[in-house]
Amino acid sequence: MKVLLCPDSFKDALDAEEAAKAMAQGIQRAAPNAITQLCPLADGGEGSLDALIAATHAERRTLTVQDALGRPRQAAWGWLSEQRTAFIELAEASGLQHLTHAERSALHTTTFGVGELFLAALDAGATHALLLLGGSATNDAGAGMLQALGATLLDAQGQPLPPGGGALQQLATLDLSTLDPRLAELRVEAAVDVDNPLLGERGASAVFGPQKGATDADVATLDRALGHFADLTAKALGRDDRELPGAGAAGGMGFAAHCFLNATLTPGIEMIMQQANFAQLLNDADLVITGEGRLDGQSLAGKTPIGVSRAAKRQGKPVIVLAGSLGDGWQACTEEGVTAAFALADGLMTLEQALPRTAELLADRCESIARLWLASR
Fold this sequence. Notes:
The protein is α/β, with parallel strands linked by helices and 377 residues long. 36% of the residues lie in helices and 19% in strands.
């Protein structure tokens, strides 16, 4: 019995590696001779850097950068020296998790720290970078990152533009000629887990702004500001990418990555599975178990369990999904290769009661799955 254990993180409870280890404990209780392969995964959001480092054994480096409010913080990034490849997670520098609820301010938060991580990668000699977009506290369409990388953004009085998406309303000059010239030799892939455009009802501001502290009035302001930024960008580049699927990811960082870093936008789970050599691991497995905090209809947009299930379906491998909860529309996931899905709770319990028991519940479910698998054989 060869079991591939490839969960995402269970938010506020376990990271992906901890979840995989808990799963393995349950399998071993029922089947001591089973071969378990642990492959922690992520979909481009928070925790993706850890998953990439675990999958590739990259070196973990740290750098003092500005957080989303301009304060210093230690941000991690990954470095594969032989491949001259850097792993940069936006949330490490500009993540929502680093701000208290009262500090969330979509009008003023900046991606400047992400640009500082790119500079560190360039200083190390990077020729390839994987940019992980997710968990952002920002809605500045990458303007802060551009400033850190040397671009000139000025208002009508010729003054440097202050941080934040709201300030983009005052942008009068966008000069890309001052960008760090080393960027021309850097191949960038950006991991996204949404397909939203930059603007409008499905845009960055309307869909994701409220969770970053934006009021209804702020959303309208930000949408106008990002629209103005897109106008100036189109004039500077000679093309208009505001409708690009994924442009609205991470407060418009998908737009910035594509326009200014010439990045390709890739579903995050596919990028991370490729780096983890997932196809080969899958080929060697009899059974696949994955999971994350919630499985529902929205998971079809590119969440980890669906990425795993689609890959497994191509190889005819059964996939079990373990989730903290099963939400509306989860049944549609069976059409994407999910063989069966189970919620973790073993009785009535609140979220507060369930979180500290997540490892225990994962192990118990995996023990039951292994016993059922062995009985069926």
